[in-house]
Predict the structure.
Amino acid sequence: MRGELQHRTLAGFARFPELMDATPQFITGDEPWHTIRRGLEAWHRGECSRLELMRGMWGKYGAWQFWSLLGVLEDAETVPGKRWAETQIQRLMEAIEREYEGRNAQ
């Protein structure tokens, strides 16, 4: 579930990069999501083209990150709106909070 929420959050970031600035890094701290977020940030800052992003992900990190990034970019094209993206961020934050509270309750 958490991986799917991170994927949705990153799809929203790819479509609405301004959301990354207001969202803490830790919510996409799992791999491959953290690496993908860093790549998306570089792409949106104009430090690399989309092709360079894809080649770099494959060459430096391998197939798992590459295919995950490709899925994020494909899904970004279907993100219905900024409100939806913000909702995915909120759901991910809530899931992380529940997980954290569950570990501390033990």
About this structure: The longest helix spans residues 82-105. The two ends are 21 Å apart (CA to CA). Residues 1-105 form one domain.
